[in-house]
Every structure is written in C-alpha cells, then in structure tokens.
Amino acid sequence: xxxxxxxxxxxxxxxxxxxxxxxxxxxxxxxxxxxxxxxxxxxxxxxxxxxxxxxxxxxxxxxxxxxxxxxxxxxxxxxxxxxxxxxxxxxxxxxxxxxxxxxxxxxxxxxxxxxxxxxxxxxxxxxxxxxxxxxxxxxxxxxxxxxxxxxxxxxxxxxxxxxxxxxxxxxxxxxxxxxxxxxxxxxxxxxxxxxxxxxxxxxxxxxxxxxxxxxxxxxxxxxxxxxxxxxxxxxxxxxxxxxxxxxxxxxxxxxxxxxxxxxxxxxxxxxxxxxxxxxxxxxxxxxxxxxxxxxxxxxxxxxxxxxxxxxxxx
Length: 314
Description:
mainly beta; four-stranded antiparallel beta sheet; 21 strands; globular; disordered N terminus
C-alpha cells in the first residue's frame, strides 16, 4: 500500500503520478461522494465503492483559480458546495448540473495570499468559513450583521506554536485543515490541521467555553507524527489537503489527499486534548494503489488541491 513507505513527499510521488485507482485499506473510505478540486479548476468525484475518479468538468466563470472547496453543513445540500478563488471571491458551486454552474456569494475584504498551500473549511458550530494556510494567515468569513451571506471577513491571530510545544519557535506550514463533528447542529468541534514541514497533525491549543477549538487565537499544538501500520513516520506533501466525515454515530474520520494518494485516519484513535508538549503517533490506515485511470477525459488533469466530502443530512 502506497502509504506504508516512509516517504509521501512530492518527489516520492512522482513515479506514482498516473496510479489513481483507490484500494481499500484497513479503514475503508466513507460511503459518501468524495470530490476533488484539481489545479486546472476541474472537479472530480469518487463515488462509494468506486475505484476510479470521475471527471465532472471544469468550473468556469469564477474569474480566477479555485484554491479550495467545501460543503456547508448547515445548508444540507449534497450537490452544492462552496469554493474560494485566489482573488478572494466566494462561490456556490452546483456539481449536479452539466456543465457545473456557479453563483457568486461574496468578495472577501481581506485576500488570502497563501495560494495553493491553503485550506478552507466550514465550522459547523459557528456556521462560518475558515480560510488559512502555510503563510500563517488565519481568516474567518462570517455572515454580516444584516444577515448577508458570508459577507464579513475577519483577520484573526496568525498561526504560531504554543510555548513548550515540540515545534515552538518554528514557522507553521499549514497545508490542510478541517473541523470535526461535521454535521448541521453540532455543538462542539475540533479543528485539525496538517503541518507539512513537521509531517504532523496539529490542532488549536485552547478551547472555547463550549469545548470547541478557539481558532481565533491562532495558537497551535502538535498532536503527533503520521505513521504507517509498522510505526514508520510518513512525510507529507505540501499540496496535501484533508476533510472530515462524521458518520451517523458521531464518529469522525479524517480523509486526506496527498498528491494523488488518498489516506484515512480514524480520529477516535487521536487525543486532541493532550497537554502541550505531549504527543502521540497518528496512524494512517489506508491509501491508494492500482491501475492507471482510463485515458482522455477521465484522467486527473492536474494535481489535487482540495477535497470535500458531502456531509450527512440532518
């Protein structure tokens, strides 16, 4: 299995650039559609039990390059996601239409300038959008006081590691992130991120009064390194991104894409409440391997920038 090697860097993946079929591992992928955004503004879908990505088409009419996609749990719309461009425009994207259709929602007043090394994910408790990344920007996009949709951008404290953390004093290189309890009506959520420079899973070091990650503080702590089933540390590519799927029992699964490799982590095996300075291994349970996709329109036309999993309806 591809993720049992000790190198999942961009260089290590070069030889696997065309092997994009999915092989189930110990922890199977969630039985939901998994969508991928590629570097040429195209969206693909991996349907439950499928072994190959299906191209849905390019996303046109957004006036730039999409750098992230995500579903908004409060919307309960399995076919409509949000996307943000490199120019800070937010769009609703309907992946059920042919061609894919878009409608602009708003323009961020503070532009995210981290490029592809960024993340966007909806906080299911606050019903707000987090846009952040390797340049340490930490932006919240919220509804306006007049009720307008995602019309207010708040620049919050830039990312830094807590004093006493194993990475204290180092510059965070955050390339992917997602909130747990990814369902409408969630009352608490934890924000998980990947630092590709440290090859670690990280989170926010403090919680709000209601038990959610206090992401506005920007203060990070290390949970621990990613390892395979043999305990060997894994390296993470700078284009890695993640999303979190929450099942009907409330169990959370992290699904990641590193170049064209998919992997999963059962978050019930992860303790986000370890004291600063204490860490654990983060076990990667599945990856991909296999045969080349069909030629032509079904081949992935660029590297994967982001993934999004349709949440369960509530």
